[in-house]
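JOB MANIFEST
job_type = single_chain_structure
chain_count = 1
residues = 104
[input]
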Amino acid sequence: MPIIHVTTVEGEALELQADSGRSVMEVVKANDLPMLAACGGALACATCHVIVDPDWYDRLQPPSEDEEDLLDTAHGLTSTSRLGCQILMREELDGIRVCLTPMD
């Protein structure tokens, strides 16, 4: 079962177990961490914005044009920002590191 290393906005480091095929957003929400995820993963908002550790960013599938458009609306956008709903966990991503972003 893949592990996601999550750093909260407050700096707390957590290890979350993720079933393959579940999104980072789903795993974060299932663990009652603060993430709005207003559209529930329908790729219609940017409220599941996470910052991916640079060492992991290039291992992800490239963002779609729709995801890039939505990321443009995210607060605190970085060069390794992604939408958590678009990162689907698989064994190759075991150990991925992401930081949650403020819900403002």
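[summary]
Residues 36 and 47 are 6 Å apart (CA to CA).
The beta strands are 3-7, 13-17, 49-52, 81-83, 96-100.
exit_status = 0
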